[in-house]
Amino acid sequence: ATLGAVYWEAGDYQSADEHFQAAVKASGSSSPAVVNAARAALAVGRTEEAMALLEGLGESGAGNAEVQFDLGVTHLMMAVQRFKPQMNRTEQALFRASVKASIQAFEQCREHRRTQTSEAEFNIGLAHYLGTEYEAAADGFSRAAQIGHDASAHLCAGTAFAEAAARIQHERARDGDELIGQAAQLYKQARTHLEQ
């Protein structure tokens, strides 16, 4: 496992993956070994294997914030891989299930840490944005910005609030209509974040 960490730090994820896989075989299902192997599998593009490793931790993983965070990232990566501009019903259902699972895992991570972490909140925002739930995305990004005072979180929150406002204006107003109240309020929130 130590050699895997050395390769990981050097950016040689393929070699890190090989050593972390060997560590899992040698140590059984030790949580640190499995988490490292799952991260390496994800880094080399084996998302489903990473998912199987993390889910294989069972109850010990369910109560571990680090495992839940990695599970959230893995579900989010699976959603990205499943996304296509045109999806049939089955593809759309699988995509939405991955988005939902990622949000649930990040929320579990937040609960287990007993405090909100900006990384989990940012990823909750990202998952909602990917699922085109722009107001929920803006809320996640806003919480991340408040916790971490991160300029990128403010940019993402502003963008998500603006997307939500544009959608509401498009759905509820006709061309040439004045800006409706809810859209105006969301644009105001967007501007607040974008000016940070």
What can you see in these coordinates?
- This protein has 196 residues and is mainly α.
- Helix 2 packs antiparallel against helix 3 and helix 10 runs antiparallel to helix 11.
In helices, the fraction of residues equals over 70%
Largest sheet: none
Bulk shape: elongated
Roughly what is the average pLDDT, rounded to an integer? 90
- Specify the number of helices: 11
State the separation between the terminal residues, measured CA to CA. Answer: 42 Å
Which percent band covers the strand fraction? under 5%
Low-confidence stretches: none
Structural class, please? mainly alpha
Pattern of helices and strands: HHHHHHHHHHH
Radius of gyration: 19 Å
Q: Say how many strands there are.
A: 0
Topology:
Blueprint: H1 2-10, H2 13-27, H3 31-43, H4 47-55, H5 58-62, H6 65-82, H7 89-113, H8 118-130, H9 134-148, H10 151-172, H11 181-194
Question: Outline of this structure?
Answer:
With 196 residues, the protein is mainly α. It has helices at 2-10, 13-27, 31-43, 47-55, 58-62, 65-82, 89-113, 118-130, 134-148, 151-172, 181-194.
For this entry, give a set of tags.
single chain; 196 residues; mainly alpha; 11 helices; 0% strand; elongated
